[in-house]
Amino acid sequence: MRPFILLAIASISFLFCTAQTKKEKGWISLFDGVSTNGWHSYGKSAAGKAWKVEDGTIHLDAAAKKSYQTDGGGDLVTDNEFENFDLKLEWKISKNGNSGIIFYVHEDSSYKESWNTGMEMQVLDNDGHPDGKIHKHRAGDLYDLIPCTTETVKPVGEWNQVEMISKKGKLELKLNGTSIVSTALWDDNWKKLIAESKFKNMPGFGTFSKGKFALQDHGNDVWFRNIMIKKL
Predict the structure, then answer these.
(1) Structural domain spans, the chain
(2) Higher-confidence position of 4 and 71
(3) For residue 198, which of 17, 27, 56, 92 sits 20 to 30 Å off, Cα-Cα?
(4) Cα(113)–Cα(43) distance, rounded to whole angstroms?
């Protein structure tokens, strides 16, 4: 058999094995790199025009301000809901910027905002944004509930790697390869944490064990990429 035919067969075999390995691992892409398919602005049927796909990223173009958010923005929410999961993604924030990754969002007309139900892993320029001076509001914190045990966030303009693992009421948050938050969900201590937070008067907050993910529009440019999930 000729060498180039052997090479072609080897290449096909490699690609097949790689595809099988990825399939066996069970990872599903939530972002195809070229569109906002699978996402929409909270309470809307499609993604707002401020959410743009550029160079393999989802970018919130926050040039047009509207209150604390962006005209044509709003929190970008997955079409599907998830229960037990392992989520991985990368984010990059603008100078003085603020955003977040919100999860267990229950999208319903009863709740005006995604964060009325979903809890948030903070995305922030710690040095430039005022929230950087507030305990439990810094990058990586489980916003207003639990501070990260160690700060591993990278400087503005650099990509940060996130992993969120939630399984049977146990939550772990990782930032840049380091575990920074670990807690139980929905038990008495969880209820106590909420009762002592800014969410204490939101009856639906942190109560849903199945929900959507949201990328927060907080009126600042932010980028997300490589959004992958594994159902556990």
Answers:
(1) 1-26, 31-231
(2) 71
(3) 92
(4) 8
